[in-house]
Amino acid sequence: MAANHATQEKTVRMMSASGILGYGFPESSLEAALARKPHMIGVDGGSSDPGPHYLGSGKTLNSRMAMKRDLSLLLRGAIRNGIPMMVGTCGGAGGEPHLQACADIIREVAREHGLNFKMALIHAEQGKDFLLEQLEAGKVRALGNAPALRPEDIEGAERIVGMMGPEPYRAALAAGAQVILGGRGTDPAPWVALAMHHGLPAAPAWYAGKMLECACNAAIPKKHDCLLVTVGEDFIEAEPLNPELRCTPMSVAVQALHENASPVIRYEPGGIVDSSDCQIEAVTDRVVRVSGMAWKPAPYSIKLEGARRVGFSAMTMAATRDPGLMGQIDSFLEFVRGSTATKVSALGIAPADYQLVLRVYGRDGVMGSWEPSRDAQPVELALIAEVVAKTQDVANAALSLARVTLLHSDFPGRMCREGNMAFPFSPSDIERGAIYEFMLQHVVEIDDPLCMFPIEYEDVQGAE
Amino acid sequence: MTRLKDIAKACKSKNAGPFHITLDIMFDDPTLFERVRASGVITPALIAGLYGVAPDAVLFTEYPPALAWKATFPRRIPSGAVGDTDVYGAQQHAPLLDIDIPI
Questions:
Q1: Rounded CA gap, A329 and A269, in Å?
Q2: Which of A7, A124, A348, A435 would give a disulfide with A184, using CB separation of 3.0 to 4.6 Å?
Q3: Which residues of B touch A249 (CB under 8 A)?
Q4: pLDDT of A400 over the 60 cut
Q5: How far apart are CA A134 and CA A132, in angstroms?
Q6: Helix (H, G, I), strand (E, B), or coil: what is residue A173?
């Protein structure tokens, strides 16, 4: 089309398939993207949003079947068109098992469809020795009001990942990898890398990445669908690939609010994306152009995410429809706590070895101490009793006693003398297994953006 | 009495990372947004009071391009930790709905 590239402003077209790998997208949207000859197609694979379980346990957020469906379409589309396919934060949490789960799917799809390509795996899981050295060297900094990190925090972690910037993806592109799977990274990283690989400046590249990481979250009506972003020297244009969807200046501005602390200042490895002076304007009724973004370089740092095992959990659900009990639920639950503690200690379980957590739905089960309407009169209340303990056996034993105490404890004015609680299930008690918590709000200050993220190359040969 | 839920397009909450919650109040009518803005009711102190957090713990941004306000502050309990009630932070918006807007 363009006879003389030298006189044309350089632009790069990039696609994001959906909000998270495995959420699905219409095949027709991918085909529409490929018809536009994009320079890459990609998808973000993860988030810390679903909680610490995935990072801690090594399990993937979405099912293998759902990830394979998405990856198979993207991989075949990329190979057919000779363009890169990139996946950020593979498998939900971007640790080693999550990355390997996605690599395994890619190899399987390559075998099934006879595809050959060079693949890069970018590892993001961090060794404890490395982190202890960095801590010792004073290179680990707490964010906000987080407490300073101690060596025992690192030693007690189940898994720690670093959130890579775009540099490892750029290195893999420069090395000629066509399929790039990344461990944990800042969400925009794959797209930023591709745009900068083609010589575009950091500011529009980062803004494009932020637009793309949640795909059609930047469009209306909201849907898991594919987004195309064109990046130029000083602007980006966003356009949904499904003709039923539109990007409007408002929908694009709204994406800037998404899961961010601030809509105008975004901290990234190596700098700040500042969109304070952005102009957002409609190009057509479904294409939006944004310009005026700025990139302010800052000393390079990598954010850490970590999960530690808290213990093992068991839970049960019970509910009451008794007006007399609901009127004195607090004192009743205090009695249940005390009575349960006595029975649990009779099993030789020390108070320090378990924790009973009671959530009262219908009162403040959703908001806890933030609930402004705690004293509203409900028709019924549901309780979730949970025990967190050092072992599953202790959790099960203590929960069992808490359950029977909930069912059979007396209270003043009790009318229903056969049991105070409705249990909807048999068995009533559910083992939740090991549970985890997020434990790091820290960055590591490093000079080399690649040093924490080893890249492994593999010639995948699905065609014999 | 005009309450926010009667005039806003969206009042929502969501995690901003595992340790923070972020609230967005959004309008779809620029004139209405400007009237609410001029009322001066939506402030960091208001949000801090509704959620019982210190005003200086609230990162507050007025964001006219999206006809929106954003407030970000620490969660009661980190996402998914023992005792948490809302892993995604997606149902902490209700106190915003009844904010009285004198317009």
A1: 49
A2: A124
A3: 65
A4: yes
A5: 5
A6: helix
Which residue has 């461990």 as its token pair?
Answer: A183
Q: Cβ contacts of residue B25 below 8 Å, gap of 6+?
A: B4, B8, B10, B11, B42, B68, B69, B70, B96
Q: Quick check: B82 and A253 CB within 8 A? A: no
A107 vs A19: CA distance, rounded Å:
23
The verdict on B66 touching A (C-beta cutoff 8 Å) is yes
Is residue B26 within 8 A of residue B67, CB to CB? The reply is yes
Amino acid at B9: K
8 Å CB contact between A220 and A202: no
**Cβ contacts of B91 on chain A, cutoff 8 Å:** 366-367
Q: How many helices (H) and strands (E) does chain A have?
A: 13, 20
ipTM above 0.90?
A: yes
Residue-wise pLDDT for B42-77, tens only, equals 999 999 999 999 999 999 999 998 899 999 999 999
DSSP state of A122: E
Give CA–CA dist A141/A379, Å, rounded: 50
Question: Measuring CA to CA, which residue among A137, A162, A190 is closest to residue A301?
Answer: A162
Q: Which residues of B45-84 are buried (b: 16+ CB within 10 A; e: fewer)?
A: ebbbebbebeeebbbbbebebbbbbbbbbbbbbbbbbeeb
- The residue in chain A having the minimum alpha-carbon distance to the alpha carbon of residue B72 is A261
CA–CA distance, B73 with B89 (Å, rounded to integer): 12
CA trace torsion B82, B85, B87, B88 (10° rounding): -160
Taking the Cβ of residue A61 and every Cβ of chain B, the question of whether any pair is shorter than 8 Å is answered with no
- Residue from A51, A41, A24 nearest A81 by CA: A41
The secondary element (H helix, E strand) that includes residue A247 is none
Q: Decide: A161 and A123 in contact? Cβ < 8 Å.
A: no
